[in-house]
């Protein structure tokens, strides 16, 4: 593989770090007081799920998320933080990349009517797939330092 400036493995690490920073920004930009005290994010998602064009989304949301708004608030927040740290630092990178794909697919399905959200989620999924395909943990990662993958 011919590359410019960096090796292929280093470019994969750049993509991994960038995706991690994207997840960290997703966590950082949230109004944590509104999310934690009022479950604003879960309430917003409940409104979208209730009006969703696929009834299964609303039913699934009502069965899994709606009964536990406080717990699900923390699941979302800590997932975004953990994915960001895992990818940016290269710790358990394949696990973090697969989880990134899963979480983005959930967001993608929930926000299927919003083209702007779909573009972001599709790009994050693509980046995670490339990280997995190129083994983006080969350099500049904790995984590499401790030889776990």
Which key terms come to mind for this protein?
149 residues, mainly alpha, 8 helices, elongated
Secondary structure blueprint with pairings:
Blueprint: H1 8-28, H2 32-38, H3 40-50, H4 55-64, H5 69-89, H6 93-110, H7 115-133, H8 142-146
Helix pairs in contact: 1-5, 1-7, 2-3, 3-4, 5-6, 6-7
What is the residue-mean pLDDT, rounded to a whole number? 94
The general outline is elongated
Number of individual domains: 1
What separation lies between the terminal Cα atoms?
22 Å
User: What is the percentage of strand-forming residues?
Assistant: under 5%
The succession of helices and strands, N to C, reads: HHHHHHHH
Low-pLDDT runs of 5+ residues are: none
Rg measurement, Å: 17 Å
Q: Structural class per helix/strand content?
A: mainly alpha
- Tell how many strands the DSSP assignment holds: 0
Number of H/I helices:
8
Largest sheet: none
Helix content: over 70%
Overall description:
The chain has 149 residues and is mainly alpha-helical. It has one domain. 75% of the residues lie in helices and 0% in strands. The two termini are 22 Å apart. The mean pLDDT is 94.
